[in-house]
């Protein structure tokens, strides 16, 4: 097997593993704050071990990198709390599709902060994608799926805003992977525990089988899935990565229909297609030369997606 094909398969495997995140949240049957708390808490121990090994090899993280990782962890806490509420309101599949909006938020934030103008494709795709968001919201659809589709979209957009901030802070810090992620995840765990009363409260002692689903969520999508994608990102073209990561939201929609009985309305499904096509179109660039920041802005990543 060629090295290129192996990298592609690794990226697809990571995207498929991450696509189980939202269904696992639903299967756990716990409150949004509880699932957000334990998906981080269970991932902290293995991350700390990996960070310790990285520290032995490269030395301690600079103080600036630690501070940025802590700030990123706080935003990651809000990201998970918002997203897990979106799952409750609009379903696992549609909430995951909404998570891909952050690609646009990161791009325009980078324009404001770093003076990095988004591509023409991205600017054209933005209103198209938000038209898809309106379709998912059920504003014009009496058959819309979800307990409260409009509120689900509000939480979905809030998820993308928090996750965009998380990405920008992580980008501004160290170029290492495990150390900053371990710091951010630890801070996120503490922040979710502190913020949980504001977001409906967390059950600190969920019973089985909820614990099993949450453990699988932490060690599968949170740890293994993102490790595979992080490994593959720098080893293939950005446009190809964007295409491969679109496996994740559509797979989640399919899994949610089969495993959870979620059946979005035709207009909501049309909104999914519009968003995915818009993200795919907007994430491609005609220019052969790209900065690292531009690549980060155009690659669609999930909330933890």
Word description of this protein:
- The chain has 305 residues and is mainly alpha-helical.
- The chain has a domain of 211 residues.
- The protein is built from 15 helices and no strands.
- Helix 2 packs across helix 6, helix 4 packs antiparallel against helix 10 and helix 7 packs antiparallel against helix 15.
- The longest helix is centred in the N-terminal third of the chain and has 28 residues.
- The two termini are 30 Å apart.
Secondary-structure blueprint of this entry?
Layout (H helix, E strand, L loop, with lengths): L2 H16 L2 H8 L3 H10 L2 H15 L4 H28 L1 H7 L3 H13 L5 H18 L11 H24 L5 H18 L14 H23 L5 H8 L1 H14 L5 H17 L9 H7 L7
Helix pairs in contact: 1-11, 2-6, 2-11, 2-13, 3-5, 3-10, 3-11, 4-10, 5-6, 5-9, 5-10, 6-13, 7-9, 7-15, 8-9, 8-14
Relevant terms:
15 helices, mainly alpha, disordered C terminus, 305 residues, globular
Percent in helix: over 70%
Protein structure class: mainly alpha
**Number of DSSP E strands:** 0
SSE order: HHHHHHHHHHHHHHH
Low-confidence stretches: 286-295, 297-305
């Amino acid at each position: 097997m060629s090295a290129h094909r192996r990298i592609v398969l690794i990226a697809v495997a990571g995207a498929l593993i991450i696509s189980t995140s939202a269904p696992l949240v639903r299967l756990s049957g716990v409150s949004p704050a509880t699932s957000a708390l334990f998906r981080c808490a269970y991932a902290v121990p293995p991350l700390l071990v990996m960070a310790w090994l990285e520290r032995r090899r490269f030395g301690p993280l600079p103080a600036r990198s630690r501070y940025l990782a802590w700030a990123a962890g706080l935003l990651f806490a809000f990201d998970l709390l918002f997203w897990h509420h979106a799952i409750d309101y609009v379903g696992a599949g549609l909430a995951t599709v909404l998570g891909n909006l952050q690609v646009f938020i990161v791009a325009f934030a980078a324009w404001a902060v770093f003076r990095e103008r988004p591509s023409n494709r991205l600017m054209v795709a933005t209103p198209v994608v938000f038209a898809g968001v309106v379709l998912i919201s059920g504003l014009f659809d009496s058959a819309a799926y979800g307990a409260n589709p409009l509120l689900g979209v509000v939480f979905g957009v809030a998820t993308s805003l928090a996750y965009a901030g998380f990405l920008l802070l992580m980008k501004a810090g160290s170029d290492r992977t495990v150390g900053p992620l371990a710091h951010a995840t630890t801070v996120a765990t503490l922040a979710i525990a502190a913020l949980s009363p504001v977001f409906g409260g967390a059950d600190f002692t969920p019973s089985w089988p909820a614990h099993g689903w949450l453990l699988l969520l932490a060690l599968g999508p949170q740890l293994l899935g993102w490790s595979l994608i992080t490994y593959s990102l720098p080893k293939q073209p950005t446009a190809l990565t964007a295409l491969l990561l679109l496996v994740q939201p559509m797979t989640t929609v399919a899994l949610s229909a089969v495993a959870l009985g979620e059946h979005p309305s035709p207009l909501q499904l049309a909104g999914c297609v519009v968003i995915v096509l818009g993200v795919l179109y907007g994430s491609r660039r005609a220019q052969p030369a790209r900065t690292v920041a531009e690549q980060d802005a155009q690659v669609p990543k999930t909330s933890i997606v």
